[in-house]
Protein backbone atom coordinates (compact mmCIF):
# COMPACT_ATOMS: atom_id res chain seq x y z
CA UNK A 1 0.00 0.00 0.00
CA UNK A 2 2.77 2.45 0.94
CA UNK A 3 4.58 1.68 -2.31
CA UNK A 4 1.50 2.55 -4.34
CA UNK A 5 0.97 5.79 -2.41
CA UNK A 6 4.60 6.78 -2.92
CA UNK A 7 4.56 6.24 -6.68
CA UNK A 8 1.16 7.92 -7.02
CA UNK A 9 2.55 10.95 -5.20
CA UNK A 10 5.60 10.92 -7.46
CA UNK A 11 3.36 10.70 -10.53
CA UNK A 12 1.43 13.77 -9.37
CA UNK A 13 4.64 15.75 -8.73
CA UNK A 14 6.04 14.64 -12.11
CA UNK A 15 2.88 15.64 -13.97
CA UNK A 16 2.78 18.99 -12.16
CA UNK A 17 6.45 19.66 -12.98
CA UNK A 18 6.08 18.77 -16.66
CA UNK A 19 2.96 20.96 -16.89
CA UNK A 20 4.75 23.94 -15.32
CA UNK A 21 7.71 23.55 -17.68
CA UNK A 22 5.42 23.18 -20.72
CA UNK A 23 3.40 26.28 -19.81
CA UNK A 24 6.56 28.29 -19.18
CA UNK A 25 8.59 27.22 -22.21
CA UNK A 26 5.94 26.62 -24.87
CA UNK A 27 2.67 28.35 -23.98
CA UNK A 28 3.66 31.90 -23.29
CA UNK A 29 3.63 31.73 -19.51
CA UNK A 30 7.23 32.89 -19.15
CA UNK A 31 8.38 33.03 -15.54
CA UNK A 32 5.69 30.64 -14.29
CA UNK A 33 8.24 28.07 -13.10
CA UNK A 34 10.14 30.80 -11.26
CA UNK A 35 7.01 31.96 -9.43
CA UNK A 36 6.12 28.44 -8.30
CA UNK A 37 9.64 27.65 -7.11
CA UNK A 38 10.31 30.87 -5.21
CA UNK A 39 11.71 30.89 -1.68
CA UNK A 40 9.11 29.73 0.86
CA UNK A 41 6.90 28.52 -1.98
CA UNK A 42 4.98 25.24 -2.22
CA UNK A 43 7.94 23.01 -3.07
CA UNK A 44 10.21 24.36 -0.34
CA UNK A 45 7.51 24.18 2.34
CA UNK A 46 6.53 20.66 1.19
CA UNK A 47 10.18 19.55 1.46
CA UNK A 48 10.42 20.93 4.99
CA UNK A 49 7.17 19.30 6.12
CA UNK A 50 8.19 15.91 4.71
CA UNK A 51 11.60 16.01 6.40
CA UNK A 52 10.14 17.12 9.72
CA UNK A 53 7.41 14.45 9.73
CA UNK A 54 9.88 11.75 8.68
CA UNK A 55 12.21 12.78 11.50
CA UNK A 56 9.43 12.54 14.08
CA UNK A 57 8.33 9.18 12.68
CA UNK A 58 11.86 7.77 12.88
CA UNK A 59 12.15 8.92 16.49
CA UNK A 60 8.90 7.10 17.22
CA UNK A 61 9.80 3.77 15.57
CA UNK A 62 13.38 3.82 16.94
CA UNK A 63 11.99 2.93 20.38
CA UNK A 64 11.41 -0.64 19.18
CA UNK A 65 14.63 -1.18 17.26
CA UNK A 66 17.38 -3.63 18.11
CA UNK A 67 20.34 -3.78 18.29
CA UNK A 68 21.12 -0.62 20.23
CA UNK A 69 23.54 0.57 17.55
CA UNK A 70 20.76 0.62 14.95
CA UNK A 71 18.49 2.48 17.35
CA UNK A 72 21.14 5.17 17.87
CA UNK A 73 21.82 5.44 14.12
CA UNK A 74 18.12 5.88 13.34
CA UNK A 75 17.78 8.54 16.03
CA UNK A 76 20.78 10.43 14.66
CA UNK A 77 19.22 10.27 11.19
CA UNK A 78 15.91 11.50 12.63
CA UNK A 79 17.63 14.51 14.20
CA UNK A 80 19.37 15.26 10.89
CA UNK A 81 16.00 15.15 9.11
CA UNK A 82 14.48 17.57 11.61
CA UNK A 83 17.47 19.93 11.40
CA UNK A 84 17.32 19.71 7.60
CA UNK A 85 13.61 20.60 7.70
CA UNK A 86 14.30 23.68 9.80
CA UNK A 87 17.29 24.68 7.67
CA UNK A 88 15.08 24.45 4.57
CA UNK A 89 12.80 27.21 5.91
CA UNK A 90 15.59 29.15 7.67
CA UNK A 91 14.29 27.99 11.04
CA UNK A 92 10.98 29.69 10.38
CA UNK A 93 12.48 33.15 9.84
CA UNK A 94 10.25 34.15 6.92
CA UNK A 95 7.17 32.52 8.39
CA UNK A 96 7.59 34.15 11.80
CA UNK A 97 9.19 37.35 10.56
CA UNK A 98 12.14 37.61 12.95
CA UNK A 99 15.36 39.41 12.01
CA UNK A 100 18.62 37.73 11.04
CA UNK A 101 21.10 37.66 13.92
CA UNK A 102 24.62 39.02 13.68
CA UNK A 103 26.15 35.55 13.33
CA UNK A 104 24.03 34.68 10.27
CA UNK A 105 24.19 38.14 8.68
CA UNK A 106 27.39 37.16 6.89
CA UNK A 107 26.02 34.15 5.04
CA UNK A 108 25.16 34.26 1.34
CA UNK A 109 21.45 35.07 1.68
CA UNK A 110 21.65 36.74 5.09
CA UNK A 111 19.16 34.21 6.47
CA UNK A 112 19.09 32.17 9.67
CA UNK A 113 20.60 28.96 8.31
CA UNK A 114 23.97 27.26 8.15
CA UNK A 115 24.06 25.85 4.62
CA UNK A 116 24.24 29.30 3.02
CA UNK A 117 27.66 29.83 4.58
CA UNK A 118 28.96 27.44 1.91
CA UNK A 119 29.57 28.71 -1.63
CA UNK A 120 26.60 27.69 -3.85
CA UNK A 121 28.78 25.61 -6.18
CA UNK A 122 30.28 23.66 -3.25
CA UNK A 123 26.93 22.98 -1.58
CA UNK A 124 25.44 21.90 -4.93
CA UNK A 125 28.42 19.68 -5.65
CA UNK A 126 28.15 17.97 -2.25
CA UNK A 127 24.41 17.32 -2.68
CA UNK A 128 24.69 16.13 -6.28
CA UNK A 129 27.72 13.95 -5.64
CA UNK A 130 26.16 12.37 -2.55
CA UNK A 131 22.86 11.55 -4.24
CA UNK A 132 24.46 10.38 -7.47
CA UNK A 133 26.84 8.02 -5.66
CA UNK A 134 24.42 6.61 -3.07
CA UNK A 135 21.15 6.50 -4.99
CA UNK A 136 22.21 6.16 -8.63
CA UNK A 137 25.67 4.77 -9.36
CA UNK A 138 26.09 2.32 -6.48
CA UNK A 139 22.64 0.76 -7.17
CA UNK A 140 23.40 0.62 -10.91
CA UNK A 141 26.71 -1.16 -10.27
CA UNK A 142 25.03 -3.57 -7.85
CA UNK A 143 22.39 -4.44 -10.45
CA UNK A 144 24.92 -4.72 -13.28
CA UNK A 145 27.18 -7.06 -11.28
CA UNK A 146 24.39 -8.86 -9.46
CA UNK A 147 25.61 -12.38 -10.30
CA UNK A 148 29.20 -11.63 -9.29
CA UNK A 149 28.10 -10.14 -5.96
CA UNK A 150 25.87 -13.15 -5.29
CA UNK A 151 28.81 -15.52 -5.78
CA UNK A 152 31.20 -13.78 -3.40
CA UNK A 153 32.26 -15.65 -0.27
CA UNK A 154 30.00 -13.66 2.06
CA UNK A 155 27.40 -12.90 -0.64
CA UNK A 156 27.67 -9.14 -0.85
CA UNK A 157 24.33 -9.07 -2.67
CA UNK A 158 22.61 -10.49 0.39
CA UNK A 159 24.26 -7.84 2.54
CA UNK A 160 23.31 -5.03 0.15
CA UNK A 161 19.74 -6.13 -0.58
CA UNK A 162 18.11 -4.42 2.43
CA UNK A 163 19.81 -1.14 1.47
CA UNK A 164 19.71 -1.33 -2.32
CA UNK A 165 17.22 1.07 -3.98
CA UNK A 166 15.05 -0.62 -6.58
CA UNK A 167 15.45 0.27 -10.25
CA UNK A 168 12.11 2.09 -10.10
CA UNK A 169 13.39 4.25 -7.22
CA UNK A 170 16.65 4.81 -9.06
CA UNK A 171 14.60 6.20 -11.97
CA UNK A 172 12.78 8.54 -9.58
CA UNK A 173 16.14 10.06 -8.64
CA UNK A 174 17.05 10.31 -12.33
CA UNK A 175 13.87 12.30 -12.93
CA UNK A 176 15.00 14.73 -10.25
CA UNK A 177 18.45 15.04 -11.82
CA UNK A 178 16.85 15.73 -15.20
CA UNK A 179 15.63 19.06 -13.79
CA UNK A 180 18.62 21.21 -14.63
CA UNK A 181 19.80 24.02 -16.88
CA UNK A 182 21.23 22.37 -19.99
CA UNK A 183 23.88 23.37 -22.52
CA UNK A 184 25.97 25.61 -20.27
CA UNK A 185 29.48 24.97 -18.97
CA UNK A 186 28.46 25.15 -15.30
CA UNK A 187 26.10 22.15 -15.57
CA UNK A 188 28.08 20.13 -18.10
CA UNK A 189 29.23 17.59 -15.50
CA UNK A 190 25.66 17.29 -14.15
CA UNK A 191 24.34 16.59 -17.65
CA UNK A 192 27.11 14.08 -18.37
CA UNK A 193 26.45 12.24 -15.10
CA UNK A 194 22.73 12.03 -15.94
CA UNK A 195 23.28 10.78 -19.50
CA UNK A 196 25.75 8.11 -18.36
CA UNK A 197 23.36 7.02 -15.59
CA UNK A 198 20.46 6.71 -18.03
CA UNK A 199 22.56 4.63 -20.43
CA UNK A 200 23.63 2.29 -17.64
CA UNK A 201 20.16 1.96 -16.12
CA UNK A 202 18.86 1.26 -19.62
CA UNK A 203 21.27 -1.67 -19.81
CA UNK A 204 20.04 -2.90 -16.41
CA UNK A 205 16.39 -2.68 -17.46
CA UNK A 206 16.85 -4.32 -20.87
CA UNK A 207 18.82 -7.24 -19.43
CA UNK A 208 15.65 -8.41 -17.68
CA UNK A 209 12.88 -6.37 -19.30
CA UNK A 210 9.61 -6.02 -17.44
CA UNK A 211 6.75 -4.07 -18.96
CA UNK A 212 6.26 -1.59 -16.12
CA UNK A 213 9.99 -1.00 -15.70
CA UNK A 214 10.47 -0.42 -19.44
CA UNK A 215 7.57 2.06 -19.43
CA UNK A 216 9.11 3.89 -16.46
CA UNK A 217 12.47 4.07 -18.25
CA UNK A 218 10.83 5.39 -21.44
CA UNK A 219 8.98 8.01 -19.38
CA UNK A 220 12.23 9.23 -17.80
CA UNK A 221 13.96 9.35 -21.19
CA UNK A 222 11.05 11.27 -22.70
CA UNK A 223 10.92 13.67 -19.74
CA UNK A 224 14.69 14.29 -19.97
CA UNK A 225 14.42 15.01 -23.69
CA UNK A 226 11.48 17.33 -23.07
CA UNK A 227 13.38 19.22 -20.36
CA UNK A 228 16.32 19.64 -22.73
CA UNK A 229 14.04 21.07 -25.41
CA UNK A 230 12.41 23.33 -22.79
CA UNK A 231 15.77 24.62 -21.59
CA UNK A 232 14.59 28.24 -21.72
CA UNK A 233 12.32 27.63 -18.70
CA UNK A 234 15.24 26.69 -16.49
CA UNK A 235 17.87 28.76 -14.75
CA UNK A 236 21.29 27.99 -13.35
CA UNK A 237 20.19 29.75 -10.17
CA UNK A 238 17.50 28.53 -7.78
CA UNK A 239 14.46 27.68 -9.96
CA UNK A 240 14.04 24.01 -10.88
CA UNK A 241 16.25 22.99 -7.96
CA UNK A 242 13.45 23.49 -5.43
CA UNK A 243 11.50 20.77 -7.26
CA UNK A 244 14.62 18.61 -7.49
CA UNK A 245 15.12 18.92 -3.73
CA UNK A 246 11.53 17.86 -3.05
CA UNK A 247 11.90 14.79 -5.28
CA UNK A 248 15.19 13.81 -3.64
CA UNK A 249 13.70 14.27 -0.19
CA UNK A 250 10.59 12.14 -0.62
CA UNK A 251 12.55 9.49 -2.52
CA UNK A 252 15.22 9.38 0.21
CA UNK A 253 12.60 9.17 2.97
CA UNK A 254 10.87 6.30 1.19
CA UNK A 255 14.20 4.50 0.76
CA UNK A 256 15.10 4.92 4.45
CA UNK A 257 11.75 3.58 5.67
CA UNK A 258 11.66 0.69 3.19
CA UNK A 259 15.27 -0.26 3.98
CA UNK A 260 14.53 -0.23 7.69
CA UNK A 261 11.47 -2.41 7.24
CA UNK A 262 13.29 -4.81 4.87
CA UNK A 263 16.21 -5.16 7.27
CA UNK A 264 13.90 -5.84 10.20
CA UNK A 265 11.79 -8.45 8.41
CA UNK A 266 14.82 -10.20 6.90
CA UNK A 267 16.77 -10.51 10.15
CA UNK A 268 13.96 -11.15 12.63
CA UNK A 269 11.10 -13.66 12.22
CA UNK A 270 8.97 -11.36 14.37
CA UNK A 271 9.47 -7.78 13.13
CA UNK A 272 10.35 -5.33 15.86
CA UNK A 273 8.29 -2.68 14.11
CA UNK A 274 4.60 -3.41 14.35
CA UNK A 275 2.53 -3.66 11.18
CA UNK A 276 0.79 -0.41 12.02
CA UNK A 277 4.16 1.38 11.95
CA UNK A 278 5.39 -0.10 8.66
CA UNK A 279 5.60 2.09 5.58
The main β sheet shows up as: none
**Strand tally:** 0
Task: Give the helix tally.
Answer: 12
Q: If you average the pLDDT, what whole number results? A: 86
What's the order of the H and E elements? HHHHHHHHHHHH
The amount of helix comes to 55-70%
Q: Enumerate the spans where pLDDT stays under 50 for 5 or more consecutive residues.
A: 269-279
The computed structural class is: mainly alpha
Rg (CA only): 20 Å
- State the end-to-end distance: 8 Å
% residues in beta strands: under 5%
What does this protein look like?
- By secondary structure, this protein is mainly α.
- The chain is 67% helix and 0% strand.
- It is built from twelve helices and no strands.
- It has helices at 2-26, 32-36, 42-61, 68-88, 93-96, 120-144, 146-150, 156-160, 167-177, 188-207, 211-229, 241-267.
- Helix 6 packs antiparallel against helix 9 (167-177) and helix 9 (167-177) packs antiparallel against helix 12.
- The longest helix has 27 residues, at 241-267.
- It is globular.
- Mean pLDDT is 86; it is low at 269-279.
Amino acid sequence: MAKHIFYLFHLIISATTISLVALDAWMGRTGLLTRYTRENGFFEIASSILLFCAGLYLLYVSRKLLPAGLRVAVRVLAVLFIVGALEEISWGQHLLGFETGDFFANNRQQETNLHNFLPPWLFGLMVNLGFYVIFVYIPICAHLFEEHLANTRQSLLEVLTPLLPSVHLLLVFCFGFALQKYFILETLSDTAALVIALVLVGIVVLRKPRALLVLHLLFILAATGFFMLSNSAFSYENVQYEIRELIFIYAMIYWVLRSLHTWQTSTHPQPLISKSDVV
